[in-house]
Amino acid sequence: MDTSRKAYYLTQRKPGSEVSAEIAAALAASSIVFRKIDGKYSKALLIRAKLVFDFANNHRGSYNDSIGAGACPFYCDFNGYMDELIWGAAWLHKASNDQNYWNFVKSNILSLESTSNGGSFSEFGWDSKNAGINVLVSEGVMNNPSNENPFVPNANNLICSLLPNSPTKSVTYSKGGLLFKVGSSNLQHATSLSFLLIVYARYMQANNKVVQCGNVIAKPSDLTNLAKSQVDYILGNNPLGMSYMVGYGQKYPQKIHHRGSTLPSIDVNPNHMGCRDGDKYFQSSEPNINELIGAIVGGPADDDSFQDSRYNVSQSEPTTYINAPFVGVLAYFK
């Protein structure tokens, strides 16, 4: 590839707190994973997580301003960086048990909830970490008499916004049973919210809790069953009998919106390809040349229909933020 693939970096003068804090969260979470396997590496991860978090917190600013077109218009941070800072602190507290990180979470969560640009308890994805924060923190405070407001109440509100029979449901379901939220690439919501359903169900089970949604009582099994219904739909139990994971099942998307899947390999076509030389492959009515096995696409429309077309980006494009949470969901059911 000889077309521009510019990389960007952050500095004290050009910060990006949402990116830095997200990296700190990932490093802290990874330190937990490796703690019993490789103690030295685990400690190195945690030390670096703390350093990166300090950078994110001490040099606050949005990567929207620092790298401009590198993020916008497709991946601008829309709801501010405070949720990522709290997310990073929550993971660092879980990894280190350092009270300072817990104090950071508690002192900032209410300001996050009161903001108009992202205080929603029901959002969780590449931009917003709100629902994830509440679920993550709830593990340690679920049996606290006050529930360390607002974490458990907000996590409960999330559950009530998702359950099909809840009087406060804020999502919709297709006739085939797939969860829908407003916006494109809908399977990002079905996968990420299924992940939170499973995590919260495990916390509820461990603490012998249920969630009250008006006159509906939700047990841990209700949350797990809802997540399983989404997994089954994505993998083929739907009106079209189609798996939305490439390479899985007998019927799956053939013309996904993905450069590497669409273009011939250098072994097949060793000649130089100019910037527009791939157009004929993109415009072809034939299936993609290379199967991107395991990739989950944006998914069907809310009437359970699916247009297998590279031009229909919101339905046919696979993304990391669709696949990533689904790995956790599949690991649980496996």
Automatic annotation (TrEMBL):
The keyword Hydrolase applies. It is an enzyme of class 3 (hydrolase). Residues 1-330 form the Glycoside hydrolase family domain. GO terms for molecular function: cellulase activity. This is Endoglucanase. The lineage of its organism: Eukaryota, Viridiplantae, Streptophyta, Embryophyta, Tracheophyta. GO terms for biological process: cellulose catabolic process. SUPFAM superfamilies: Six-hairpin glycosidases. Its EC number is 3.2.1.4. The active site is at residue 257. Keywords: Carbohydrate metabolism, Cellulose degradation, Glycosidase, Hydrolase, Polysaccharide degradation. Belongs to the glycosyl hydrolase 9 (cellulase E) family. It comes from the Eukaryota. It catalyses: Endohydrolysis of (1->4)-beta-D-glucosidic linkages in cellulose, lichenin and cereal beta-D-glucans. InterPro entries: 6-hairpin_glycosidase_sf, 6hp_glycosidase-like_sf, Glyco_hydro_9, Glyco_hydro_9_His_AS. It comes from Trifolium subterraneum. Pfam families: Glyco_hydro_9.
